[in-house]
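Question: what's this shape?

___
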Amino acid sequence: MTVALDLTEATRTRDPQELLNAVAPHITELTVNIFDSGTSLWDREVALLLRDHTMVRDMAERILGNGVMYVMASIENPDVHLGVGKLVDIGVHQLILDTPVWWGICRLYNGGRYKHHAPFIKRRTDGLCLRTSEFLKSQGWAIDDELWAIDGADCSPCDSKVPDSH
């Protein structure tokens, strides 16, 4: 049996906050933990970043937003090799670590398939981060150039293990 996945309905917007908040109805595990604060998923993830990292809200939102953009691009383009720098990776890790939210993202945007995270230890220095930022722009994302350029060629330790991993 072949199943065709149409992401166009789920990803009409390029707004990271809207995309993340749309995940809420797809969260089925630990819902009390996720929804007990009464805040949106966006505000929850920002609050967790602020709890665990030394930064102001504006920076947390920038990092989370670019992390969402990267995750969505990696889901929408499973055969394209993408990678992030250290700062944006903080936002990506925030999403992955909040596992009920990550599962919701996988349910809504990845056809229910789990998107693995299995980085290598050594960071890459081949400019993948900068190429990824250009790719994201070509896909209609309004990236934060400063966050992507800050790491320059010092990229995430990802390998070309697409399509089931970022």
About this structure: Helices lie at 16-21, 31-35, 41-52, 57-76, 86-97, 99-109, 128-138, 145-149. The chain is about 50% helix and 0% strand.
